[in-house]
Design a protein that fits this description.
The chain has 8 helices and 6 strands. The protein is of the alpha/beta class. It is globular. Helix content is 40%, strand content 14%. A 6-stranded parallel beta sheet has the order 3-2-1-4-5-6, sandwiched between helices. The two termini are 30 Å apart. β1 (31-37), α2 (43-53) and β2 form a beta-alpha-beta unit.
């Protein structure tokens, strides 16, 4: 049985039914998670996070950059509407009046998957020129989890300085590095493990994450 199939079976047996309306807050039955997709390679990570959340009591709010739309179309064939259909709510990148741009709007946290160097740099410097980076800035100022799946290699000193600045501000820098202890059989299993790990880092428990377990003597 594939990893995705195992996870889906566990979710059906242990998770509540599909979430309710988007009016519920993170203090109610459902956690409210903001998912950002920027223009770095690896938009499949954002898609998989949205897919996993559909099996969890998690309400998703999606914002995609224009570069993210282009990369998704190139890498997976997904259109903006395809990804938006996986979320409870979605917003235009320039909709700076959207609910998620305000700190008074309750949310559990935010994951940007993947997170481009441009997006990361904007967040690190506080230059929030669109809804994606503004929502991330809100997470930092409200002391909520912000997980950045930064996708680039190799990294020069400027990249690393920005990452350090973000870590000091409270962000979680989580490059999409696969775990091999679970012996993934294909790319899909690797993607699912990384997506589940990002959810875990955001404080959202899920049955899709295969944890390392050391046997006791």
């Amino acid at each position: 049985m594939k990893s995705s199939e195992r996870g889906a079976e566990v979710a059906r047996n242990h998770s509540p039914s599909r979430k309710g309306t988007a009016s519920e807050t993170s203090t109610g039955d459902n956690a409210r998670l903001i998912v950002g997709i920027s223009g770095a390679s690896g938009t499949v990570l954002g898609r998989r996070i949205l897919e996993l959340c559909r099996e969890l009591p998690v309400e998703t709010h999606l914002v995609i950059s224009r570069a993210g739309e282009m990369t998704a179309a190139y890498e997976t064939g997904d259109k903006r509407t395809d990804l938006a259909a996986l979320a409870d709510r979605h917003y235009a990148i320039n909709d700076i009046g959207a609910a998620i741009a305000s700190g008074s709007y309750r949310s559990h946290g935010m994951i940007i998957a993947p997170c481009s160097i441009k997006t990361m740099s904007e967040i690190a410097t506080g230059v929030t020129g669109n809804l994606l980076t503004r929502a991330a800035d809100v997470m930092l100022k409200e002391r909520r989890p912000l997980v950045l799946m930064v996708r680039e290699m190799p990294l020069h000193a400027g990249h690393l300085r920005n990452m350090l600045s973000l870590a000091e501000l409270g962000a979680i820098i989580a490059p999409p590095v696969p775990a091999f202890y679970d012996r993934p059989r294909d790319i899909d299993e690797m993607v699912e493990q990384m997506a589940a790990r990002a959810l875990d880092l955001a404080g959202i428990d899920n049955p899709y994450l295969h944890r390392w377990q050391q046997e006791e003597d």
